[in-house]
Design goal:
about 260 residues, about 0% strand, globular
Length: about 260
């Protein structure tokens, strides 16, 4: 008679490098495979669809330009979310924080500093965008830190509030006089337009900021006291409190950076 086999599941203390590489690749392959099944059930050829998509996006200058253009805000949002998620703070409100950053920067360019020189106006737009996004994230951060309100619900619902605020502005007081009644603002002045890589729509100042932000968050996580506290709190909140860490400070700091980068 054989002995029973005991199986015990334990959380890894450190994730090996091979697993860090394998997981995102496997996730991408699985997503493409599942989408292929959906295409096939609709009578479409997955190979033809993927071939057309990738050839037009990666095989043409316009496709690559559009890809980079859409990657920039997603990268900024993602960098901030990495910090929040490591602390097990589930910021689902990057969309709303991005919108609030856009509102702040647009308002500055159209109404508050329309005649300011480019060297002053563009940095100011970045600053107010960051502050608006961070301020929007501060609301659910304080609710979670002080009242233990679930941040998934508050950040998600605040996306809709931000979207409705934008809708109110473009249908109401910010509707442009030169847009023939359509719900758009007037164009921001030329001195507020970001410079782009010649022949593309890629605004390189924001791309540079996104890359610098990635490096800054890495340094913050690996070389600072706050980064250490974020990792400890995310791994074991009770241990973090037991050794004197302040959960409220960690939650609010993570949400401020996360929301600020989305607003940026």
């Amino acid at each position: 008679m054989g002995f029973p086999i005991a199986i015990r599941v334990e959380k890894r203390l450190e994730t090996p490098t091979w697993l860090k590489i394998t997981i995102p690749i496997s996730s991408l392959v699985l997503a493409l495979a599942l989408a292929s099944v959906v295409f096939a059930l609709q009578g479409l050829s997955p190979l033809a669809i993927y071939g057309t998509t990738f050839s037009r996006v990666l095989g043409t200058r316009m496709g690559l330009s559009f890809l980079f253009l859409k990657t920039i805000p997603l990268l900024l949002c993602a960098v901030g979310l990495v910090l929040a998620f490591r602390a097990q703070v589930w910021n689902i409100g990057a969309e709303g924080q991005l919108l609030m950053g856009a509102v702040a920067a647009t308002g500055l360019a159209l109404f508050l500093m329309p005649d300011a020189p480019r060297w002053a106006l563009i940095p100011a737009m970045f600053v107010v965008g960051f502050l608006a996004g961070a301020g929007w994230a501060l609301i659910p951060a304080v609710l979670k830190a002080k009242l233990r309100v679930n941040e998934v619900i508050t950040t998600l619902m605040m996306n809709y509030v931000a979207a409705k605020l934008v809708e109110y502005l473009i249908y109401g007081p910010w509707r442009g006089k030169a847009t023939w009644g359509f719900p758009f603002t007037d164009l921001i002045p030329d001195n507020a337009v970001l410079p782009t890589v010649p022949g593309t729509g890629i605004h390189y100042p924001t791309l540079i900021l996104a890359l610098l932000s990635s490096g800054a968050v890495f340094v913050l996580m690996e070389k600072t006291k706050l980064g250490y506290e974020v990792k400890v709190f995310g791994g074991n909140p009770e241990l973090a409190k037991a050794v004197g860490m302040r959960p409220a400070k960690i939650i609010i700091a993570c949400m401020l950076v996360s929301g600020g980068l989305a607003g940026l």
